[in-house]
Design goal:
Blueprint (H helix, E strand, L loop, with lengths): L13 H4 L2 H37 L8 H4 L2 E4 L2 E4 L12 H43 L5 E4 L4 E3 L7 E7 L6 H17 L8 E7 L7 H8 L7 E4 L2 H10 L4 E2 L13 E2 L3 E4 L5 E5 L5 H16 L6
Parallel strand pairs: 5-6, 6-7
Antiparallel strand pairs: 1-2, 3-4, 3-7, 5-10, 8-9, 10-11
Helix pairs in contact: 5-8
């Protein structure tokens, strides 16, 4: 048997088994193919990203103030930058502007209304005085306690206070007559108003209040009182001129006693016979005296004497 010698080199790969020229050629072609594959893979990758973005893209959310205005850090503490005025709401610039405009408008409106109400009040007061002057008082003809004729002309040249009542009145008339007497005493105590006012009592019960009855009745009151009475028609005309209501019971037999229902007012007439003021039961003597004194002064300030 023949002994053959074998080499110990390992077996070659298929590539190594190719001839040298063939191996170089194959390696060059593989390198070029790899270069061509790289751009294609990047383009494909870009297309894939676009496709995923188009399919799964979410709408952008409105950024919060903390994101729009980034925080700043001072000494380890974080501070968020905030706006001076919010964009909407009552504390925004438009909201503050509307509030100021409304406040100014209301201020102007209420001032205007206050002045308007004041003007209307003064006009109403003037209208009442004018209407009273035109409607109260007028021509009349009566007889005094001394049986002398007395008309509206006898009331010229002085202030007169006129009260309507009846001699058989148990309480109200005496109270009002006393009040008038007290007011006269207060006026006569002042030199500027002394003897400037003449009191007049007019009966609204002519069937019983004769001149003699009236004279006897007035002795209970102030000595300056002039008492007037007359026929039923004369008294009715006078009461109508002064807008005084009075009523006698419809069924009275013989000397039967009765009461007369009448208005309880005292009228102040000026020296020209013009109505000036009316005093109700609620006004006391001091009020009447003070008010009359003011009107006497106003009259004298015009240069006229009493």
């Amino acid at each position: 048997m023949l002994n053959r010698a074998y080499t110990t080199d390992p077996p070659k790969s298929p590539k190594e088994q190719l001839p040298k020229n063939e191996a170089v050629k194959n390696e060059t072609s593989n390198t070029e193919a790899a270069k061509d594959e790289k751009p294609k893979s990047e383009a494909a990758k870009s297309d894939d990203v676009k496709t995923e973005s188009a399919q799964g893209e979410k709408p952008k959310e409105k950024l919060k103030d903390s994101e729009r205005f980034p925080s700043r850090t001072f000494g380890g503490k974080s501070e968020t930058k905030e706006r001076l005025f919010p964009e909407t709401g009552p504390l925004s610039l438009p909201g503050i502007g509307i509030f100021l405009t409304t406040a100014i408008g209301l201020f102007v409106y209420f001032n205007y209304e206050k002045e308007r109400v004041g003007r209307e009040r003064k006009e109403r007061m003037n209208r009442v005085e004018t209407v009273g002057t035109a409607d109260i008082g007028g021509r009349f003809e009566l007889v005094d306690q001394d049986h002398q004729m007395f008309t509206e002309k006898n009331m010229l040249g002085k202030f007169h206070v006129v009260y309507f009542g009846f001699c058989h009145c148990p309480d109200i008339c005496p109270e009002e007559m006393d009040k008038i007497g007290d007011a006269l005493d207060l006026l006569d105590a002042n030199a500027d108003t002394k003897d400037a006012v003449q009191p007049v009592f007019i009966s609204c019960d002519p069937q019983r209040d004769t001149p003699v009855e009236v004279k006897s009745y007035l002795k209970q009151f102030h000595s300056k009182f002039i008492g007037l009475t007359g026929s039923v028609e004369q008294v009715r005309t006078t009461c109508k001129a002064y807008r005084v209501y009075f009523s006698k019971p419809p069924k009275v037999v013989g000397d039967q006693d009765y009461l007369v229902d009448h208005a309880i007012y005292t009228y102040l007439m000026d020296p020209d016979g013009v109505f000036v003021e009316v005093y109700g039961k609620d006004k006391n003597a001091e009020y009447m005296a003070n008010d009359i004194a003011k009107r006497i002064k106003k009259f004298k300030d015009t240069g006229r004497a009493l």
